[in-house]
Design goal:
318 residues, alpha/beta, Helicase, Ruva Protein, domain 3, two-stranded antiparallel ribbon, 15 helices, 16% strand, ATP binding, AAA+_ATPase
């Protein structure tokens, strides 16, 4: 498979647009683009004011996708997301009124403020790319990607995401605070919203769908696949782990690695692609034993250690 120059130019334009909007976060933007090209959903978990919502809005504008935003709260109902069938007297039939989920890029802002019942309305859409209302299945636009944000430090009025839903997010990303130089550039800007206002559309959503197809065709050597599986197995066998990574996690990590390879202008996956993204793909899917958590161990630290401990294949076939 040949890496197309126009694809790289388009991806470069998207990357520059996002980096001009969210300063000092090149690594995080690279991982976000990998999720986009892999067609995976993303959970943005960070404290308020770090640019989570602005980043997703800027991405949607840059790729020209149909964008919808849901502001989650305890009063939000499942039908407020999926849509509802309303009886039309003139037609003498029920007419489906689609909800905001009918979009290419859906932002569920503060998803942990929605009740578990409402959160579960997203499960079918995340996995199967359609929603069922009154027994009738309605396909979602293609591509469809869910970006959800949540604040990790608030507990009052929030609901934990169930493990089944966490497992459907390809990545969990954090932006973190900017460094001093970057924050100084931010405060010197005359308008806080100017960066987002300057974002222009540089791609079509159909182009993203086409690149996603090419990403799926990236070559994976059996030795690389074996390396990935050994990392996954290590998460299940470690004494600190109560719940290890699922087979869905294996598939997600390989899809993300393919996208990272494509972003690196390669048509084949190398172990470094897996190592680069393992923490973001696996850490939110792993549940540690209480004793390990009380000792200050985190799933991020554990995945980082396992990636270093699992031996890397030395010879690959192209």
């Amino acid at each position: 498979m040949e890496i197309r120059t126009n694809d790289m130019q388009m991806i470069g334009a998207i990357r520059r647009s996002l980096e001009n909007c969210i300063l000092g976060k090149s690594d995080e933007i690279e991982r976000l683009l990998a999720a986009l090209l892999a067609g995976g959903h993303v959970l943005l978990e960070d404290v308020p004011g770090t640019g989570k919502t602005q980043l997703v809005k800027a991405l949607a504008r840059a790729v020209g996708g149909q964008f919808r935003r849901i502001q989650c709260n305890p009063d939000l109902l499942p039908t407020d997301i999926t849509g509802v069938s309303i009886y039309h007297p003139k037609e003498e039939a029920f007419i489906f009124r689609p909800g905001p989920i009918m979009a290419n890029i859906l932002l569920a802002d503060e998803i942990n403020r929605a009740t578990t019942k409402t959160q579960s309305a997203l499960l079918e859409a995340m996995e199967e790319r359609h929603v069922t209302v009154d027994g009738i299945s309605h396909p979602l636009p293609s591509p469809f990607i869910l970006f959800a944000t949540q604040n990790p430090i608030e507990f009052e009025g929030t609901y934990l995401l169930p493990e089944a839903q966490l497992d459907r997010f390809m990545m969990r990303l954090t932006l973190g605070y900017p460094d001093d130089a970057t924050e100084k550039r931010m405060v010197l800007n005359s308008r806080s919203d100017q960066a987002y206002a300057d974002v222009e559309q540089v791609a079509e959503i159909g182009d993203i769908a086409r690149i996603q197809e090419r990403v799926r065709a990236v070559h994976v050597d059996e030795a690389v696949a074996d390396y990935l599986v050994r990392i996954i197995r290590a998460t299940r066998e470690h004494h600190s782990v109560q719940l290890g990574a699922s087979p869905r996690a294996s598939i997600s990590l390989m899809a993300a690695a393919k996208a990272h390879a494509y972003l690196s202008e390669r048509d084949y996956v190398i172990p470094d692609d897996i190592k680069r993204l393992a923490g973001q793909v696996l850490s939110h899917r792993i549940l540690l034993h209480m004793e390990a958590r009380m000792n200050g161990e985190t799933s991020e630290d554990l995945v980082g250690r396992l990636v270093q401990e699992v031996s890397v294949p030395v010879r690959l076939e192209r």
